[in-house]
Design brief:
Number of strands: 0
Mean pLDDT: 82
Structural class: mainly alpha
Helix content: over 70%
Number of domains: 2
Low-confidence stretches: 406-426
Shape: globular
Radius of gyration: 23 Å
Length: 443
């Protein structure tokens, strides 16, 4: 709870400045070094201002939050310590985002390795000596080391690229990016938490709701396994898209968009299918207490695939500067999720919530892909109808098979269908692999 509370403050403190830094540093660093320097300083100054204010707010409200929200007055000290961590981690994130804009991925990896080596050396003695407060302190020390290293590397890259650092008197002329990009980026990040909280509240309000919520939460854990690699790829692709957009290289931009979607598809689809098909195996790991979790895993794996595709498409929205459009679509997604939850959860419990996620993400995927095709990268979708239809058919069969356990008469039919799925996976992955190779050659 302490982590989620600090995370809530961090969304406001960050103000979407990380993605802003990545986008505009990548877009202008070669064509306009003066502008890039002003943007870097603007992002750092605004980030320091917001994170300072929110850190002070976190510390000032620690007593109230710990007593009346968390109902644990003894957590006040931990929240106070977390306020310092909040400031340092937000600033470190901004510096890392600037390095991402420089496409300094080796530098970022080296900093991460250094932090990983230092972590046990700092964490173990502090946790042993001071418990939870020691853990927060260790996180703060490690984040501070990362901030120092990343700040030093940013200065080095600015010097290497001939980017002058312009201070407060000149940076405000770049303020338009705060309203066109940072603000909608923060609003998009803020939409997820309220929507999830409302839908979870609807579920737990039902008879036996906490049991259903426990089963849903257990099934939802497996989504994290699918999110790791594609999420890393998505963050790496934004500066490349931004640079192509900044140089008005429309053909390269479309090719990069297509490559990103194909690569995400290639990695995510096989994992989705395997986890959906073997949901009884994964569900059994939770024990008999979570009986009935299998079909939820199947549904949520498909939801995760759709979310990853949306993330790849969302990178093209960010890379082309269409953040307000993306924010509007995210808002509609939240509305669809909440409305379908109120309709389906009273009827189907935890499965109703999983299906609400499926409906909302499906509609979100459809309108994002349509906009991508019509406004951003023409041909990215219409040239690949066979792939899309095959994927829909494959995921539809996975969903059906995942829910067949509730009807024993259909078990043999389900197994018969399942026997053909490896062939489908192989064919689609073969198509994707060939497409990715073609896109790599073009890019």
């Amino acid at each position: 709870m302490v982590q989620s509370t600090i995370g809530f403050f961090a969304v406001f403190a960050g103000f979407g400045l990380g993605s802003t830094a990545t986008k505009f540093v990548a877009q202008h660093r070669q064509a306009d070094q003066e502008k890039t320097g002003r943007i870097i300083v603007l992002v750092v100054v605004v980030g320091a201002l917001f994170s300072s204010v929110l850190s002070l707010a976190c510390a000032a409200s620690a007593s109230l939050v710990s007593t009346f929200v968390l109902h644990r007055p003894e957590l006040k000290l931990i929240l106070n310590a977390g306020a310092i961590f909040l400031f340092i981690s937000v600033m470190g994130g901004i510096m890392t985002a600037v390095l991402t804009g420089f496409e300094a991925f080796k530098t970022i990896a080296a900093i991460n390795v250094a932090q990983a080596i230092i972590t046990p050396l700092v964490s173990i003695p502090l946790v042993v000596a001071f418990g939870t407060v020691g853990a927060i302190s260790a996180m703060t020390v490690i984040a501070a080391i990362g901030l120092v290293l990343s700040s030093s590397c940013v200065k080095k890259h600015c010097l290497t690229c001939g980017i002058p650092i312009k201070y407060v008197s000149q940076i405000w002329q770049e303020r338009a990016i705060l309203f066109s990009f940072s603000l909608p980026s923060m609003m998009s990040a803020l939409m997820m938490a309220p929507a999830v909280w409302i839908t979870n509240s609807v579920l737990v309000a039902q008879e036996g709701g906490y049991t259903e919520f426990g089963i849903f939460t257990a099934a939802n854990q497996w989504r994290n396994l699918l999110l790791i690699i594609p999420t890393i790829l998505s963050s790496a692709i934004l500066p490349i898209l931004s640079q192509a957009h900044g140089t008005h290289d429309t053909l390269s931009f479309k090719r990069i968009v297509s490559f990103n979607i194909h690569l995400t598809w290639l990695i995510s689809l096989p994992l989705t299918v395997v986890m959906a098909l073997f949901s009884p195996v994964f569900g059994a790991l939770f024990g008999e207490t979570f009986d009935g979790v299998d079909p939820l895993i199947s549904v949520l794996m498909i939801v995760c695939f759709l979310g990853l595709v949306n993330g790849a498409v969302g990178s093209s929205f960010a890379g082309s500067g269409r953040m307000w459009i993306g924010t509007a679509m995210n808002f509609v997604w939240a509305i669809v999720l909440i409305v379908t939850t109120y309709l389906m959860v009273p009827l189907y419990g935890g499965m109703g919530l999983a299906l609400s996620y499926l409906i909302s993400y499906t509609t979100h995927t459809v309108w994002q892909l349509i906009y991508l095709e019509l406004r951003i990268a023409e041909g990215a979708i219409t040239n690949h109808w066979t792939l899309i239809i095959s994927t829909i058919f494959l995921l539809g069969m996975c969903l059906t098979i995942g829910m067949l356990k509730y009807n024993n008469n259909l078990t043999k039919i389900g197994l018969s269908i399942a026997s053909f799925l490896p062939i489908g996976i192989f064919c689609i992955d073969k198509i994707l692999f060939n497409r990715v190779k073609q896109e790599v050659r073009r890019v």
